[in-house]
Write a structure and sequence with these properties.
It is a single chain. Helix content is 22%, strand content 30%. By secondary structure, it is of the alpha+beta class. It has one domain: 60s Ribosomal Protein L30, Chain: A (2-Layer Sandwich), CATH 3.30.1330. Helix 1 runs parallel beside helix 2. The longest helix has 18 residues.
């Protein structure tokens, strides 16, 4: 089962020993994406929008789009941001949204407020 590493220069490069995404048997696993440059702004909607744009760039590098996403995981620093994150996230899935979970975590890389990962299929 060969795997293909997916990379987009339009999204942030990995900050550790992982790939932006890996494709195996028609399934693309996109690593958690963050928007470190916006984390300190206090604008959770802008931060979420940048995260989703990064995911879109990576999906595009794999020849896919948001319509191919079947599963998403959202990690929040503060569950009080849920409604704002949900509003922006939802604007990328206007019909047939993927399965998803949202959890609050103690801390995220680079002290961001939101991290999102997705799984997409061809």
């Amino acid at each position: 089962m060969p795997k293909q590493i997916i990379f987009s220069d339009k999204a942030p490069a990995p900050i550790g020993p992982y790939s932006q995404a890996v494709k195996v048997n028609g399934t693309v696993y996109v690593s958690g994406q963050i928007a470190a440059e916006l984390a300190k702004s206090g604008d959770i909607k802008a931060e979420t929008g940048m995260v989703m744009q990064n995911i879109g760039h990576i999906l595009g590098a794999a020849g896919l789009g948001f319509q191919n996403v079947v599963k998403a995981s959202i990690f929040l620093r503060d569950m009080n941001d849920f409604a704002s994150v949900n509003e922006i996230y939802g604007s990328f899935f206007t019909k047939e949204p993927p399965a998803r979970e949202t959890v609050q975590v103690a801390r995220l890389p680079k002290d961001v407020n939101v991290e999102i990962s997705v799984v997409a299929v061809e």
